[in-house]
Amino acid sequence: MDEKNKQSTTLMWSARIGGATVSIFWIISLFSSAIGKSVGSQLSLTLEGILLIVLVAASTIGVGIAWKNPLTGGKITVVSSLFLCIFAYFSAGDNRMFAVAVSGLPYFLVGVLFVQSHLAKEETL
C-alpha cells in the first residue's frame, strides 16, 4: 500500500470514528434531555429544542451518508455543522465560544476529514 492510500484510509477511519463518537454523544444527550424534561407522559418541546434536534439530525445523517459517499456526506456535515455553530453561538448565554466548540466544531472537523479523505483517495487514482 503506497503512502497516499495509507493517508486516505487513515483520514477516512479517523472521520468515521470521530463522527460516530460525536453522533452517539449528541443522540444520548438529546434523549436524556427529552426524558428529563418530559412531564409525566407529555413531552414538551420548545422552538429552540426542535431547531437543535433538526441540526443535530442533519449533521448525523451527513455522517451516515459519508460512510458510503465521503464527499457528499462530508459536505452535508460541514454545512449543517456551520448552522449548528451559529445556533449555539446565539442560543448560548455567557460562554458562547465554548458552546460553539462543543456543539458544531466536532461535526465540522469530521466533515472536513471526510472531504479530505475523498480528495486524498482521488489523488491516488
Describe the 3D structure.
This protein has 125 residues and is mostly helical. It contains four helices and no strands. It is elongated, with a radius of gyration of 16 Å. The chain starts with a helix and ends with a helix.
Concise account of the structure shown:
With 125 residues, this protein is mainly α. The protein contains 4 helices and no strands.
Q: Which terms would index this structure?
A:
mainly alpha, 125 residues, single chain, 86% helix, Four Helix Bundle (Hemerythrin (Met), subunit A)
Low-confidence stretches: none
Distance between the termini: 13 Å
Number of domains: 1
Shape: elongated
Main sheet makeup:
none
Predict the CATH topology.
Answer: Four Helix Bundle (Hemerythrin (Met), subunit A)
Number of strands: 0
**What is the averaged pLDDT score?**
90
- What share of residues is helical? over 70%
Q: Helix and strand succession?
A: HHHH
Please name the CATH architecture.
Up-down Bundle
Strand content: under 5%
The total count of helices amounts to 4
Q: In CATH, what is the class?
A: Mainly Alpha
Structural class category: mainly alpha
Radius of gyration from the alpha-carbon trace, in angstroms: 16 Å
Q: What does the secondary structure layout of this molecule look like, with pairings?
A:
Elements: H1 3-37, H2 47-68, H3 70-91, H4 96-124
Helix pairs in contact: 1-2, 1-4, 2-3, 2-4, 3-4
